Amino acid sequence: MLKSHFSLWVIILLLFGHFSNAQKNESEYAYELDSTLNEWKPTGLRVGVDVSGPIYTLFEPTTNWYELAADMDFHKFFAVVEVGRGNYNSNVDTSSYSSRGAYYRVGVDANFIARDPNLNVFFFGLRYAGASFNEKLSGDLPSSGWGSQMLNLEQNKSSANWVEMNIGMRVRVWKSIFAGYNARLKMLKHNEFSEGKFQSYYIPGYGRAERTVNWGFDYYIYYRFSWKKKPIPWRKN
After folding, report:
1. Is CATH 2.40.160 the right assignment for the domain spanning 2-23+44-226?
2. Backbone φ/ψ region at 95: left (φ over 0), alpha (ψ -120 to 50), beta
């Protein structure tokens, strides 16, 4: 929670500063709408890393994840790909559980401030996501007689799919460097695990498997690779 509030305030301050700067430099980038202008042709690829995973681990050592993200502009929209790895380890009394695997998300973001000359982004997006992971469960199982029986289960073919609604920002920090966040609403569609063993507890990229709806928050640092100047059609008064 502390991480989420800190990241949100940093983004708000950065956004305010850069929007103010955008107004001062509007004439440098802006020009009239042109019917021959190809606004839909991609002009750059933004590649980023999620820094919230390592920070979250400081507060919750049982969970960690590492994620890379990329998006490509198509006028007001961005094609998005996100890939990562997630781990969960829990030890309670004499039992332990672990989940390790990879996940992906693909989707589209719609930018509500596509005319911003600094290429800042405030977006709403949709994602389709999937994960493949291995799980282990071990511990002492009480028996009807004296003592207990050691339980040691492993399933290597667990998988899950879900959909997400995202809202967030990307703000230019300096030259081609951007910072921003994604707030996620995740809705689980399917979770497949080894029949006859145990139900999945933690899904990398999603969270607790018994929840049909999960929330998420990620904070990214991006670098934008540009191969041409992005057209910014701006209606002058």
Report:
1. yes
2. beta
Mean pLDDT, rounded, for 77-106 = 94
CB of 102 within 8 A of CB of 68? no
Sign of CA dihedral 49, 54, 55, 59: positive
Mean pLDDT of the chain: 83
Residue 38's pLDDT is 66
- Residue whose C-alpha is closest to residue 99's, from 129, 67, 68, 137: 137
Structure tokens that stand for 150 in this block: 């050691």
Phi, psi for 186 (deg, rounded to 5): -105, 135
- Among the listed ranges 13-17, 70-74, 95-99, 147-151, which one has the minimum average pLDDT value? 13-17
The amino acid that residue 166 corresponds to is N
CA dist 164 and 125 (Å) reads 8
| Helix locations, the chain, DSSP H | 2-24, 26-29, 52-59
3-state secondary structure of 7: helix
CA-based Rg of the chain, rounded to a whole angstrom?
Answer: 22
Distance (Å, whole) CA 218 – CA 66 = 11
Q: What is the DSSP letter of 17?
A: H
Q: Characterize the bridge pairing of strands 202-203 and 177-192.
A: unpaired
Lowest mean pLDDT among 8-17, 39-48, 124-133, 227-236: 8-17
Neighbouring-strand partners of residue 214 = 186
Task: Please report, as a single letter, which amino acid is at residue 9.
Answer: W
3-state DSSP helix/strand/coil % of the chain, to nearest 5? 15, 60, 25
Q: pLDDT value at position 149? A: 67
